[in-house]
Specification:
heterodimer, A: alpha+beta, Uridine Diphospho-n-acetylenolpyruvylglucosamine Reductase, domain 3, 5-stranded antiparallel sheet, 21% strand, B: alpha+beta, Aldehyde Oxidoreductase, domain 4, 3 domains, 6-stranded mixed sheet, 28% helix, binds flavin-adenine dinucleotide, binds FE2/S2 (inorganic) cluster
C-alpha cells in the first residue's frame, strides 16, 4: 500500500509501484491537467512537483511523471497543475499569460510546473539563467520560446523580494501558491515513516526509473519484488575520505552536478552535466542507474571512467570491487548479477597537476544524447604527460577506454605532432558503427580540443590540416 | 487582447480529446502498422491476441462496411492495408481492448506474413521509374530557351531539402461513440472536421448527416492534422460502429511518428541566368517532390511549390516544373508553408551559388532582383501593394545591417575557432487556398435572450489564436463587450462543409463570415431600436460600446432590453453567414490566373556563430520586418511569427529525418528527432511590423500570419553557410538542408579527410 499526498488530498493505493505516475494521476485521480506528449522524458508536458522532507525541511523538485515509478511517490507530496490553481491566476500563471507564453496550451501546464520548480528551489539564486534552466526540459512547438523567456524574466522579477527564510509563507502570501501548502509539512510528517528509505537485499532494482520505465514499463509493473532504492539515505551522498571521492549510487545527477565539494576537483562539472538530459530527468536519474544501464552514451560513465573509477557492489551480503572499465561489457550489458546492487563508485582525487577535459556533441546542444562524447585526464609534469586516460562514448556497443592512445601519450609533450599521432592511434582503436565518418571526425576534434585545453600555447589549428 | 484561451491553458483546464469524459465501457485502440515499406500481405493471424482477457476485437480491412478508402484529392489510400503494404507504419489492424496497455500487449501477439518487395525511397528513384502521384506540371513566363544565350552568367546545380515532422505536442487522436438511430459522434483532434466526417461516411457507408464531428481545440496541428486526422477518426468510428462501444484512440508519440506523413522532402535541379549587372534574366527549376505512398494533399503542395518558384524576386523568364513522385514512405502531407519553403530554399540556394561563383555578396543579387510593384508572377497575377523592397530597406536600416556586417567582419578577423555569418532573406507568400473552391468561410452567430452571444465558425482553434480574432471582430461589429461572447467548438452539426483550417486563411475566411453575420444582426437590432425609439431612418440609430444612440444622443435603451425586444417581436437573433473570397480565380489548363487574395512580405536578418572546432552553431539573432497589414492583434501575430520562425529554423538546421534502406525512419521519437528547445532559440529575436497599407481582402486589414514567417528560418541556413565559408573558403557548396551539426563539421574539414585514417 502506497501512501502519499496529491495536491491537498492524502492518497492510498494498491496500484503497482512500478507503474507510471502519470497514468495514476490521469486515469485514477482523473486530474487531466498533466499532459502526455511523449512518455519518454523528452517533452516535459507531464512535469509535476515532488515534495519531500529532507533534513527536516520540505523541498520540492520537478520530475517527469511519465517516467516516474508510482512507488517513488510514496510518502511524498505530488503537486499537479490542479494543486497550484487558486481562484485567481497565480503570479506564475499571470506571467505566462501577460507575455503570450501560451498558444495551443498543450505544453503549458508542464511549463507552469517547471517554473514552480524554480520558485521553490531554495538552493538556486533567483536569476534568469536559473529560471531558464528550470524550464529547459519543456518543449514547446508553438511559441518559439521568446515569450516564455519573457515570462521567466517576469517570474524572476516577482521573486526578487522573496526572503531566504519562510519562503513558503511568502509564496502563499504573494499569490504564488494556494494556502494549503502551509499544512503540507505537518501532513507529510504524519505519513512519513521514521525509518528512511533503505536498500533491500534482493529484488528488481529501480532507482529513478528513468531508464526502466522507458525501456521496459511492463517489466517494472509485473515484477512482484521491487527494490526501490531512490533516495536511499546511505547512498544518496558524496563523501571524501583518504584522498578518494566516493559517490553513492543513488546520488542523483542533479546532486552530482551541484556538489560544491566535487567542483573543487572538477571545476567544470556543473557545465558538463548541464548538457545531460533535462532538469526534471536530472532530479530523478541516479549515478547508479547511469552506470548500470550501461548505455554507450552515458555521460557520467565517460567522465568517471576517465578517472579510472572503481565500483563497490553488493550481492547477498557480499561486497566486491571492480573497475568501471571492466564492468561495462557490451551494449546495455554489465558485469553483474541482475539483483546485485552498486553501492559506491570511487576514484582518486585529482591533484593540482591533474587536468581534466570533457566534450559532448549532439544533434541539439541540450537535452540530447551524445553523438560523440569523450573525456581525457592527464597528469602533467613540466609539460610532459605522465599519466593519461582517454575515454570515448557513443561509438559502439559500449563506452571505451582507449588504451593504446592513452599509453601513447605518456612521456609526450603536447604538440601538433603529438596530437596527430595520438589521433592516428585513436582512429585505429575505434570502430564506429553508424555515421562513421562523422563520428571519427568528432573523435579527432575532441582529442584536439582536450589537448588544446591542457596546453593552448603548444598546439594549433595547423595540427588539423 | 490576450489569447482568450490562455487562462484555461495556464490552469491546465483546457480540454483536448484525451481529456473528454469517457463512458465506463470505453475501449482503447492501438494500431498495428506494417513492419516493412513495401510488400504483399499474405496472412494476418489475430488468434493469440484475441485469446487475451480484456481484448474485445481486432478490426481490419474486412470489418469495413463501406469503402476501404480515405483519399481526399485522389482516392488512392486505404484505411487498413488489405492486400499490399506501401510504407512502414501503414495501418493493418487495430486492437480494441479494455486498456491501452492491454491492447499494446495483444498487438505484439499478432502474426503477419508479408512477402517483402523492393521499396522506392527517394523522389528521383521514383521519377526514374515513372511512379507519379499525378501528372507533372510546369509554370512558364517569358521564354527561357531564348534567353540563356543572353545571360552573362549561368549557374547550374542541384539542391536537396529534407522533410520535417510536425511534432504537434498533442499526438493524433479521436474518441467515438454511437448516438441513437445509427448516428455516431467523433471527437477528433483534426484541423478539418469535414474531412473526418467524409472519411467516416465513406468507411461506414452511412450518410454525412449521421456523423457528428466535434473539435474543441487541438494541441497544435501545423498541417499534420489537416488530412491525416482522418484515419484515426475513421478507425475509432469503425470500432464504435461495429462493436457498439465507445472507443478512444490516442497515438503514442512513436506510432504517430511512424504512421503519419511529414513535410515533403524535395530534390531540385536549378539553372539561373544573370546579366553582367547581376540582374536575373532567367530561371529554370525542376523539383522532385517525395510524396510518399499516397496522394494525400501532395498535388496541392506541389501547386504551391510552383506558385512560389520565383520566391520574392522578379524573374522575367522562368520555367518551373514539379513532379509529385510516389515512394514507399508514409504519405507526406500539409505542413506550415505547404511546398513554398522548398521552392524558396532552392531559389536562395541558386543565388548563393551564383554569389559564390561570381565572388559577390548574396545580398547584392538579392536586393537587385526583389519584386517591385506591378511585376508579373509566372502565374500571371500582378504584384500589388508590393512591399518586398520596403521590407528589405526598412530591415536594412532598422537593424543597421551595414554596422552588423562590419562587426562580423571584425569578429571573424579576430577569432580563428569561431566564425560568424550573416544573411538576409526576403519573403513573399501568397494568401488563399490555391484550390479556389476552398476559399469559403462560415459563421453562425446566436444572440441569446440575456444579451450574451454564442459563435461557431468553421475554423479550428489550434493555438493560432483564431478564436480570439473571431471574438474581436464580432465584438467590434456588434460594439458590445468581449465578455459577452463564447466561441464554441467546431462542430459539423452547427457548421456544415467547412474548409480545413489551413493555408493561413482561417481568420480571414471565417472572420469575414462572422462580420457578415454580425452586421446582419446589427441591422435587425437597429431596426427594432428604431421602432422602439420612434425614429424614421435606420441611420439615426447607432450602437456603440453597448449604448444605443438616437440621432447622436444616448438613450436609455440597454443592450439587454434591445435583445429582449427583438425576441419579443419574433425577429431572429441568429444568423449564419457565408463568405467567399472575391476576385480570385485560376485556370489549370493555362496555369494562369489570379489565385491569391494578396501577398505577405517581409525580410529577415539572421546572424549566427559557428564553432568551427565542434561543427556546431548558435543563432545569435533574427530580426524581421514583417508585413502584418494592420494587425488586429499584435500579441497573437507576433507570437505566430516567432513560433513559425523557430519551426523554420528547426527545419533548416537540426531537424533531420532519415530512413534506412528498408524505409524505416531512423529518428522516430523525441529522443532522436530533435526540435528546437529553449537553448537553441536565437538569443535575440525581434519582429517589427512594417507600416503598410491594410489590404481589403485581409480581415479588417490584418494579414494572414500562420505560415509566412516560417520561411524566415531559411535565412539561418545561409547565415551558417556564410560563417562556414569564413573558416573554409574552399568549402564545397552542398546545398542540402537541413544543415545539421554533422554536415557542418564534415564540410568545414572536407579537405582534411585523410586525418580519419
Ligand atoms: C529524456 C532523457 C534524457 C537522457 N539524457 C541522457 C544524457 O544526456 N546522458 C546520459 O548519460 N544519460 C541520459 N539519459 C539516461 C539517464 O541518465 C539514465 O536513464 C539514468 O541515469 C538512469 O538512472 P535511474 O536512476 O533513473 O535508473 P533506473 O531507470 O531506475 O534503472 C536503470 C537500470 O539500472 C539498474 N540500477 C539502478 N540503480 C542501480 C544500482 N544502484 N545498482 C544496481 N543496479 C541499479 C536498474 O535495475 C535498471 O536496470 C537520459 C534519459 C532520459 C529519459
Ligand atoms: S510525456 Fe513527455 S516528458 Fe513525460
Ligand atoms: S503552446 Fe503549443 S506546444 Fe507550447
Amino acid at each position: 500500500m502506497l501512501n502519499f499526498i496529491v495536491n491537498n488530498k492524502e492518497v492510498k493505493t494498491d496500484t503497482p509501484s512500478g507503474s507510471s505516475l502519470v497514468d495514476f494521476i490521469r486515469n485514477e485521480l482523473h486530474l487531466y491537467g498533466t499532459k502526455i506528449g511523449c512518455r519518454e522524458g523528452d517533452c516535459g508536458a507531464c512535469t509535476i512537483l515532488v515534495g519531500e522532507i529532507k533534513d527536516g525541511e520540505l523541498k520540492y523538485q520537478t520530475m517527469n511523471s511519465c517516467l516516474m515509478p508510482l512507488g517513488n511517490a510514496n510518502h511524498k507530496h505530488i503537486v499537479t497543475i490542479e494543486g497550484i490553481n487558486c481562484p485567481e491566476l497565480t503570479s506564475v500563471q499571470a506571467a505566462i499569460l501577460d507575455n503570450n507564453g501560451t498558444q495551443c496550451g498543450f505544453c503549458t501546464p508542464g511549463f507552469v510546473m517547471s517554473f514552480y520548480g524554480f520558485c521553490l528551489n531554495a538552493d538556486k539564486e533567483k536569476n534568469l539563467e536559473n529560471a531558464i534552466e528550470a524550464i529547459s526540459g519543456n518543449i514547446c512547438r508553438c511559441t518559439g520560446y521568446k515569450s516564455l523567456e519573457k515570462a521567466a524574466a517576469a517570474v524572476v522579477s516577482k521573486l526578487q523580494s522573496m526572503p531566504g527564510a519562510e519562503a513558503m509563507a511568502w509564496l502563499v502570501k504573494n499569490n504564488f501558491l494556494p494556502d494549503y501548502f502551509m499544512d503540507i509539512p505537518g501532513k507529510l510528517k504524519k505519513i512519513t515513516p521514521s525509518k528512511p528509505v533503505a536498500v533491500q537485499e534482493s529484488g528488481y532494482i529501480i532507482a529513478g526509473g528513468t531508464d526502466i520505465l522507458l525501456q521496459n514499463p511492463e517489466g517494472a509493473i509485473e515484477s512482484g519484488n521491487l527494490n526501490l532504492v531512490y533516495g536511499a539515505s546511505a547512498y544518496s551522498r558524496i563523501k571524501f575520505t583518504d584522498g578518494k571521492c566516493y559517490i553513492g549510487s543513488t546520488t542523483t545527477i542533479k546532486d552530482l552536478k551541484e556538489s560544491l565539494e566535487l567542483r573543487k576537483y572538477i571545476p567544470k562539472l556543473e557545465g558538463y552535466l548541464k548538457l545531460m538530459a533535462s532538469t526534471p530527468i536530472r532530479n530523478m536519474a541516479t549515478v547508479g542507474g547511469n552506470i548500470a544501464n550501461s548505455s554507450p552514451i552515458g555521460d557520467v560513465c565517460v567522465i568517471l571512467m576517465a578517472f579510472d573509477s572503481t565500483l563497490v557492489l553488493r550481492h547477498k551480503g557480499e561486497t566486491r570491487e571492480i573497475k568501471l572499465k571492466d564492468f561495462l561489457i557490451g551494449y546495455k550489458k554489465v558485469n553483474k548479477e541482475p539483483e546485485e546492487f552498486i553501492e559506491w563508485i570511487y576514484f582518486d582525487l585529482p591533484d593540482e597537476n591533474t587536468h581534466f577535459s570533457y566534450e559532448k556533441i549532439s544533434k541539439r546542444g541540450h537535452l540530447d544524447m551524445a553523438t560523440a562524447n569523450s573525456a581525457m585526464r592527464v597528469v602533467l609534469a613540466d609539460g610532459v604527460i605522465t599519466k593519461a586516460s582517454f575515454v570515448v562514448g557513443a561509438l559502439g556497443p559500449t563506452i571505451r577506454y582507449l588504451e593504446k592512445t592513452s599509453a601513447y601519450l605518456l612521456g609526450k609533450k603536447i604538440s601538433n605532432q603529438t596530437f596527430q599521432e595520438a589521433n592516428r592511434i585513436a582512429q585505429g582503436e575505434i570502430t564506429p558503427r553508424s555515421r562513421a565518418e562523422y563520428k571519427r571526425s568528432l573523435v579527432r576534434q575532441q582529442l584536439f580540443i582536450h589537448l588544446m585545453n591542457f596546453s593552448p600555447g603548444t598546439i594549433s589549428l595547423e595540427a588539423l590540416k | 487582447m490576450k489569447n482568450i484561451d490562455s487562462r484555461s491553458h495556464v490552469r491546465g483546464e483546457s480540454i483536448y480529446v484525451n481529456d473528454i469524459p469517457v463512458r465506463e465501457d470505453t475501449l482503447f485502440g492501438v494500431v498495428l502498422g506494417s513492419p516493412c515499406a513495401h510488400g504483399k500481405l499474405h496472412k494476418i493471424d489475430f488468434s493469440e491476441a484475441l485469446k487475451m482477457a480484456g481484448v474485445e476485437a481486432v478490426i481490419s480491412a474486412k470489418d469495413i462496411p463501406g469503402e476501404n478508402q480515405i483519399g481526399s484529392i485522389i482516392q488512392d489510400e486505404e484505411l487498413f492495408a488489405d492486400k499490399e503494404v506501401h510504407y512502414v507504419g501503414m495501418p493493418i489492424a487495430m486492437v480494441c481492448a479494455k486498456t491501452e496497455a492491454l491492447a499494446r500487449k495483444a498487438l505484439a501477439k499478432i502474426k503477419i506474413d508479408i512477402e517483402e518487395l523492393r521499396p522506392i525511397l527517394t523522389a528521383r528513384e521514383a521519377h526514374a521509374e515513372k511512379k507519379f502521384i499525378c501528372p507533372s506540371r510546369t509554370f512558364r513566363i517569358g521564354d527561357t530557351d531564348a534567353m540563356w544565350e543572353k545571360c552573362a552568367h549561368i549557374i547550374e546545380g542541384q539542391a536537396e531539402m529534407g522533410g520535417q515532422e510536425h511534432i504537434y505536442l498533442e499526438t493524433q487522436g479521436a474518441y467515438a461513440y454511437m448516438l441513437e438511430a445509427g448516428a455516431i459522434k467523433i471527437h477528433s483532434s483534426t484541423q478539418a472536421t469535414k474531412y473526418v466526417q467524409k472519411g467516416v461516411s465513406r468507411v461506414l457507408g452511412i450518410p454525412m448527416h449521421k456523423i457528428e464531428v466535434d473539435v474543441n481545440r487541438i494541441g497544435g496541428g501545423f498541417g499534420g492534422k489537416e488530412d491525416q486526422a482522418t484515419p484515426w477518426g475513421a478507425m475509432a468510428a469503425l470500432a464504435a460502429y461495429t462493436l457498439r462501444k465507445p472507443l478512444k484512440l490516442i497515438l503514442s508519440r512513436i506510432d504517430d511518428f511512424t504512421m503519419t506523413g511529414k513535410r515533403h522532402p524535395y530534390s531540385f535541379d536549378f539553372k539561373l541566368g544573370l546579366n553582367r549587372d547581376l540582374q536575373i534574366l532567367c530561371y529554370q527549376m525542376e523539383a522532385f517532390q517525395n510524396a510518399g505512398a499516397a496522394a494525400d494533399v501532395s498535388p496541392a503542395v506541389m501547386e504551391r511549390t510552383l506558385f512560389h518558384g520565383t520566391g520574392s524576386y522578379h524573374v522575367p523568364n522562368a520555367k518551373i516544373t514539379c513532379h509529385s513522385c510516389k515512394t514507399n514512405l508514409p504519405p507526406n502531407t500539409a505542413m506550415r508553408g505547404f511546398g513554398a519553403p522548398q521552392a524558396m530554399f532552392v531559389f536562395e540556394a541558386a543565388i548563393m551559388k551564383a554569389a559564390a561563383t561570381l565572388n559577390v555578396a548574396p545580398l547584392e543579387i538579392q536586393r537587385k532582383n526583389l519584386l517591385r510593384e506591378g511585376d508579373r508572377f509566372p502565374y500571371e497575377q500582378i504584384a500589388k501593394n508590393c512591399n518586398a523592397g520596403k521590407c528589405w530597406d526598412s530591415a536594412y536600416e532598422k537593424f543597421a545591417v551595414e554596422k552588423l556586417k562590419k562587426e562580423i567582419a571584425a569578429f571573424n578577423k579576430k577569432n580563428i575557432h569561431c566564425k560568424k555569418g550573416l544573411s538576409l532573406f526576403p519573403l513573399c507568400f501568397g494568401i488563399s487556398f490555391t484550390k479556389t473552391s476552398l476559399n469559403q468561410g462560415r459563421s453562425l452567430v446566436h444572440i441569446n435572450t440575456d444579451g450574451s452571444v454564442s459563435i461557431t465558425t468553421g475554423v479550428v482553434e489550434m493555438g493560432q489564436g483564431v478564436n480570439t480574432k473571431i471574438l474581436q471582430v464580432a465584438a467590434k461589429t456588434l460594439s458590445i463587450s468581449p465578455q459577452r461572447f463564447t466561441i464554441h467548438s467546431t462542430n459539423t452539426t452547427r457548421i456544415a462543409n467547412p474548409s480545413p483550417t489551413a493555408a493561413s486563411t482561417g481568420a480571414d475566411l471565417n472572420g469575414k463570415a462572422t462580420i457578415m453575420a454580425c452586421e446582419a444582426l446589427r441591422a435587425r437590432l437597429k431596426g427594432v431600436a428604431l421602432q422602439e425609439l420612434k425614429g424614421r431612418d435606420p441611420d439615426e440609430i447607432e450602437i456603440k460600446d453597448e449604448i444605443i444612440f438616437h440621432n447622436g444622443s444616448k438613450t436609455d435603451l440597454t443592450w439587454e432590453r434591445l435583445v429582449f425586444l427583438t425576441d419579443e417581436a419574433r425577429i431572429s437573433l441568429s444568423e449564419h453567414a457565408h463568405y467567399a473570397t472575391p476576385v480570385i480565380h485560376f485556370d489549370k489548363a493555362s496555369e494562369k490566373g489570379h489565385p491569391f487574395a494578396y501577398h505577405v512580405y517581409g525580410t529577415a536578418v539572421t546572424a549566427v556563430t559557428v564553432d568551427c572546432l565542434r561543427g556546431t552553431y548558435e543563432i545569435d539573432l533574427v530580426k524581421v520586418v514583417h508585413d502584418f497589414g494592420s494587425s488586429i492583434n499584435l500579441d497573437i501575430d507576433i507570437g505566430q511569427a516567432e513560433g513559425a520562425l523557430m519551426q523554420g529554423i528547426g527545419l533548416m538546421t537540426i531537424e533531420e529525418l532519415l530512413v534506412d534502406q528498408k524505409g524505416k525512419h531512423i529518428y522516430d521519437r523525441l529522443a532522436s528527432y530533435k526540435i528546437p528547445d529553449i537553448y537553441f532559440a536565437p538569443k535575440n529575436v525581434e519582429v517589427v511590423p512594417l507600416d503598410s497599407e491594410p489590404d481589403a481582402l485581409a480581415l479588417l486589414g490584418s494579414k494572414a500570419v500562420g505560415e509566412p514567417p516560417l520561411m524566415y528560418g531559411i535565412g539561418s541556413y545561409f547565415a551558417i553557410l556564410m560563417a562556414m565559408r569564413e573558416f573554409n573558403p574552399t568549402l564545397k557548396l552542398d546545398l542540402w538542408a537541413p544543415l545539421t551539426h554533422q554536415k557542418c563539421l564534415l564540410a568545414l574539414y572536407d579537405k582534411y579527410g585523410d586525418l580519419l585514417k
